[in-house]
Amino acid sequence: MICKIEKQSGTAFTLKKGQQLKVIDPMGEQVSDMVLFNAQDPREKLSSGKTLDFQEKILIGKGDFLWSNRCNKMMEILEDTNGRNDFLLAPCSPETFEIMYGNNDYHPSCFENLSKNLKKFEIEPDDIPTAFNIFMNVQWDQDGNLSVEPPLSKAGDYLLFEAKMDLLIGITACSAEDSNNGSFKPIHYEIL
């Protein structure tokens, strides 16, 4: 059954070892932030640094693993029809919109949506790691300067993951304008 994450919102759920998670961009150009925790001990969580170290590359996609802070495989990416994901940038937060956008008004954020939805699993805001930003198109130049460009994902693009341990998962439909080419759309997911 396909589940829908409404625009600028999120959800959290469990995934058993061996189950598969399909994350779908139903309309195109929509980023989804995903964080992972070991369901048996949530102090073990997704690590951008370990993943980039062990995969020996910045662009993570099909055939790669997402690794934990304890150097364990958490998920394997079985399929990736988009081919461009980010593991450098943190989830957008209220401070993101203040500092980078100059917006002091309330704005939904991935950090808030992850915090709110993971609370039922007793995950505290300070426990939330750098997210694996599905479909996010971060570019860099020869001097190392970063830019966030419109996602390359088209309607129906997806990533298929397989859990390598029992997991707690937080996932969003990203709320940052720059990440989503100026508009907000839903994200779909399916547990297989």
Could you walk me through the main structural features you see in this protein, from its secondary elements to its overall organization?
With 192 residues, the chain is mainly β. The chain has one domain. It is 12% helix and 33% strand. The strands form three sheets. Strands 1-12-3-10-6-5 form a six-stranded antiparallel sheet. A four-stranded antiparallel sheet has the order 2-11-4-7. The longest helix has 9 residues, at 110-118. The mean pLDDT is 96.
User: Biggest sheet, open or closed, and with what strands and sense?
Assistant: 6 strands, antiparallel
Helix content: 10-25%
User: What fraction strand?
Assistant: 25-35%
Give the integer mean of the pLDDT values.
96
Global outline: globular
The domain tally reads 1
Order of H and E elements = EEEEHEEHHEEEEEE
Please identify the structural class as seen in this structure. mainly beta
Compute the gyration radius: what is it? 15 Å
In the predicted model, the low-confidence regions spanning at least 5 consecutive residues are none
Number of strands: 12
Strand order of the largest sheet: 1-12-3-10-6-5
* Number of DSSP helical runs: 3
Give the termini distance in whole angstroms. 9 Å
Give a nutshell description of this structure.
12% of the residues lie in helices and 33% in strands.
Task: Based on the model shown, name its key terms.
about 190 residues, six-stranded antiparallel β-sheet, four-stranded antiparallel β-sheet, about 10% helix, globular, DUF1989, Urea carboxylase-associated family protein
